[in-house]
What we know:
The complex is a heterodimer.
Chain A: H1 2-10, E1 25-27, H2 28-42, E2 46-50, H3 66-70, E3 75-76, H4 82-94, E4 98-102, H5 113-120, H6 123-126, E5 136-141, H7 156-160, E6 166-168, H8 173-186, E7 190-195, E8 202-204, E9 218-221, E10 226-230, H9 234-247, E11 252-256, E12 259-261, H10 265-275, E13 278-285, H11 290-301, E14 311-315, H12 324-330, H13 334-345
Parallel strand pairs in A: 2-3, 2-4, 4-5, 5-7, 6-7, 10-11, 10-13, 13-14
Antiparallel strand pairs in A: 1-8, 6-12, 9-11
Helix pairs in contact in A: 2-8, 4-5, 9-13, 10-11
Chain B: H1 6-29, H2 47-53, E1 61-64, H3 69-74, H4 79-86, E2 110-113, H5 120-134, E3 140-145, H6 152-164, E4 168-174, E5 177-178, E6 181-182, E7 203-207, H7 211-226, E8 232-237, H8 252-255, H9 261-265, H10 269-279, H11 285-307
Parallel strand pairs in B: 1-2, 1-3, 3-4, 4-8, 7-8
Antiparallel strand pairs in B: 5-6
Helix pairs in contact in B: 1-2, 1-10, 1-11, 2-7, 4-11, 5-6
Amino acid sequence: MPWTKILIEKQEPDFDEHAGRDARKLTVPEALKETLDQALGMDKQVFVMGQGVDDPSGMFGMTLGLQKKFGSERVFDTPLSENALTGIGVGAAITGTRPVYLHNRPDFLLLAMDQIVNHASKYSYMFAGEARVPLVMIAVIGRGWGSAAQHSQSLHGLFMHVPGLRLVMPSTAYDAKGLLTASIADGNPVIFIEHRWLFKHRSHVPEELYAIPLGKGIVRRKGKDVTIVGISYMVIEALRAAEELQEEGCSAEVIDPRTLKPLDEKIILESVKKTGRLVIADTDWKTCGAASEIASMVAQKGFKYLKSAVKIVAWPDVPVPGSYVLEESFYPGKDDIINKVKELVKK
Amino acid sequence: MTSLSKKELQAMYAVILRIRLVELKIEELYPQDEMKTPIHLCIGQEAVPAGVCANLTKDDYVFSNHRGHGHYIAKGGDLKAMISELFCRETGCSKGRGGSMHLIDTSVGFMGSSSIVGGSIPIATGAALSSILRKDKRVSVVFFGDAASEEGVLFESMNFAALKKLPVVYVCENNFYSVCSHQSARQANSDISSRPRAFDIPSCRIDGSDVMEVYDASKKAVDNARSGRGPSFLECRAYRWRGHAGAGDPQKDYYRKQDEWGEWMAKDPLKNFEDALIKNKTLTALEIKAIRETIDKDISGAFEFAERSPLPKKEELEKYLFG
């Protein structure tokens, strides 16, 4: 769609922590496709399903050509029966396979909440490890072009609430590959949430299959005056904010937790210990959300490091609006982060 | 009486008797409050798991629901581990993390039970998909009640199973009651077996108190599944003799239809099968006595084992959250 091209290219972030000039660069969907390709090639127990995985566009490119290469038994389109198909993933997973179930949007995961929350997340615990559920569920957050209330939700706060789930939210192509590998390999149910606005982002992606451990965040930019934790796409906004703040003499450290469950508490606490100030930027509602949870964690475990109150940049408590005028006032961005930082620093 | 050998018929009888005697023992001891978990007795419905599981190998998969004691026993689940689970012990099949509604014994293909109505249906369907992908010829069977036929996930699952010709057998145990609500208060069309036909899934309605009828119908269904002809559906009508949960049925007079009780009591799956086996000389009074003694010994052994087993350690609360 042309709009995404324009918007995303405009917002292409100018950073790449791994790169030499000649390093191979991939977009996020290219990196995910390569990971699925390699996982399917490496392990016969891996299969890929989802509504539209064999579409000409290959779900934003994430599954392009995979059915042709691996056959319709291992890469297949699904009926629009999200709850049953999630349960089918659970049943296949506990009997020795490693399913990857792709969804266009997290909004559709709501139709599968019984199987995700009542079954997938609890199978290991309620049967004391007698069965395990290596099931990866991928969904891509939408934004803009009037996608509106039912095609733009993130919902990761809901999943973060539930014990027994892994929750992964990569922000670069490098991480997308490494974290998807780790997710498929993990042996537990994983909610893997991508963001549509990251899909034109390119970063260095090594060709070989590699994994980034779940629960290990990364410092995207070093700083000493304030810590900004960015989740998913908000990492990009946080980096832009940090650049502008630097011009005004404020040094911001940007942390990308990469996975929310498990959460790398240590990397956040160590940063706050150094800076004494914390802003958390999320692509979700604030109430009972990931940002509030991180704020709560820091208040409980790092209160003594804080020089001022924790600030949160997140969605207002209303559904995502359709009109682009309302979208502009709905979505927070770098300027909101900058304003919050200034509130903290001037004190 | 069919192609089954004397030994096979006796074995099927022993399964019905074992389920009945285990359930009666649980019911007898339940008021002592040592089994601190809800119980959902399947007395009156024993012939369904006994008849179905007689067609399965140890490697085949069975999935179950909250009323799962009979399914677990019929698939060959370890009795000591089941009773220990009811006693909330570390030696329980789910190490005291599950309770009576979450039984599992993967060593005999009993893959777990869900207490969300209909919850196991797609999971069993997924195990059947796994069987195709892994080419291991296992059949997957899921037991569920009449109320699960009201859940959308059954229809989603049947559609997928029919689409992919999965080796799954859907066994609906219609005992007519969901807690205290009669089927007629919940379903516009009481013929549950008509639903799967919308997906071209072979389906039949049988008397679930007649183990031979269950055996014959499920044999066909299991054969179909194993030979690549896809899913089947059985509606087995079998009366729930007890209340929804707990011992006895104290509210019986307030919710049951008065005229049905006598009819179903005459269809006792244990007594009728026993009478038939005696009549055709497959079973003698002496053999019954021997079978009963073995089962009684197993039951008392299981209860003694459970009572002297250790409880889970409090400090292991978080163990097993991830596999």
